[in-house]
Automatic annotation (TrEMBL):
The chain crosses the membrane at residues 237-258. InterPro entries: CHP02186-rel_TM (IPR019088). This is TIGR02186 family protein. Keywords: Membrane, Signal, Transmembrane, Transmembrane helix. Residues 1-37 form the signal peptide.
Amino acid sequence: MTAAPKAARRRLALPAFLACVLLAAACFWLAARQAWAQSLVADLSSHLVAITTGFIGTDVVLFGAVDGAGDVAVVVQGPEAEVTVRQKERIVGIWVNNEDITFDRVPAYYGLATSRPLEADVPPAVLQRHEIGLDHLRLVPRGSASAERVAEFRAALIRNKQRQGLYSTEAEEVSFLGQRLFRTRIHFPANVPTGTYTASVYLIRDGDVVSAQTTPLLVSKVGFSASVFEFAKRDSIWYALLGIALAVSAGWLAGAIFRKS
């Protein structure tokens, strides 16, 4: 009669013991995750890049602190869209499109800043995982083109973006103020596309990312230029007709002034 209750108690105690173990493991994981996240703190001087009439570009300061020695890398990207790269060929004196490759989810803007060159000490797999550097930016092609052709078109895409001032030609400097504080500047050119961007900051030690933080950033048209932009998108036909009317009126007015003079 006594053996059955003892066996029942053992069966009841086992799930309770497992629950305690799982709870302790979850608490340990949460504590470790919080400590991992708090080893790096970063923010932006502004989370909005306002494009107004006469916008000529601007700089945003990224600043932060780390809990000890390490290298810092900053990657700024956004917004994503598909991009088609075309190769032109001259036939009978006329340039025509010969071949093209479309890449999915291409960031319209890519900026990079590092505290020092990382290629020598950080494995390529780590750089690729976090897209640190243009050589490690994930650009996924459509179709079944050969690896050699994809590499050629990929390089052409990056060159075009760099020519437009939208991709970094070289990494900016992340400067340390003492042992913990750091800062860098992110430049947005006059032709920066509107949309949502991300500024990802990585703390690197012994060739691996030990902490990371991502901060959102919005590039948006404001004021009169925003109203014109929204009107052009919402009522494109009326916008075109208004543009034609203004051009005709300006031409007529200029002609009248010259006739009087």
